[in-house]
TrEMBL record:
It comes from the Bacteria. Keywords: Membrane, Transmembrane, Transmembrane helix. Residues 103-351 form the DUF6754 domain. InterPro entries: DUF6754. This is DUF6754 domain-containing protein. It comes from Planctopirus ephydatiae.
Amino acid sequence: MGSSHLEWLSGRAHSSTGNALRSVWRWLNCSLAMMWVLAICSLPLTAISQASETIALQETPGVPSTTQSDVQFESSSDVVTPSAEMATPPANEAADNLLEDTASKLFSEKRFWSLILVLAVCFSVLICTFRARMGAKVYVRPIAGLKAIEEAVGRATEMGRPVLFVPGIMDLNELQTVAGLSVLSSVAKESAAYENNVHVPTARSLVMTAAREVVQAACIEAGKPDVYNDDSVRYITDEQFAYVAEVCGWTQREKPAACFYMGQFFAESLLLAENGNSVGAIQIAGTAESSQLPFFVASCDYTLLGEELFAASAYLSGEPQQLGSLQGQDLGKALAVTLLLAGCLLITLVQFEGLGPYPQIAYDVLYHQILGRD
């Protein structure tokens, strides 16, 4: 196979990997957008149905509508009895109430500043992405766990032992699984460059299909398409602990020298990590499940904490669009931290006397208007 043909396959593999991950990401965004559209559209429909029921009830003959002027009190028995006259509010009043209820449900003035903050974060992401595409340098702090990928794969190759990659136990509708597959692309590329085998057991059939595409594309991109083997990416079972039993058994039999755990994990995290530790493997884990992070930190050499897992794709790929989006999100987080610190400072200053009414006024503006709290 000529070098030009390998370069063509490499470019095609790189584009196919990116297209696969982008397709999954677009599908998730479209699903979220559809949920928002349905939620917004349901508000006026709910208000209209409620108003229609009210109008129909008021216009039904023989159904009394009691008002405050129609109530008479009997001093002897304190019994409330409605009068015989029935008052029916005009239809235009019900229509006005319908419009007011619909407007109040569609837009709340108390959430105006929340809208401003959301728009500010969105614009920061767009601006940072545009700047990154124009060639501006985006700094991403070094992440030790991602820098150690090459070291771990190289160590496994020197020892003549395979590499294990576990993409979590959830399906592709979870963002952590998608983030784990982006890390799998880099691990598979490094393994293919060293002509080593990467074993990827999956707990979902759809994840298996996506993982096979990612590994195959990574092998072609590395210029070693013959290294790819379909049997290295296998579907085990949807059952949590049955899946863990198979992975742990394979770990004890094959004794991988490098283990990667990237995705969403639950009670099986410590079982997997302890088995990898027992065979002397270098282990790199990453998850956004805060309840499982202590187990990975205790039993793995490197751990991606929370959002470091989601930043791994931008860190490893270096694509301007992902780097710009990452920078814009960081600006949004900085804004949230600034508001948090400002609130803490103002609530502290309010406790001191002699500073005048200004701290209290600023606190009320921040708490009631900007944050929309009652």
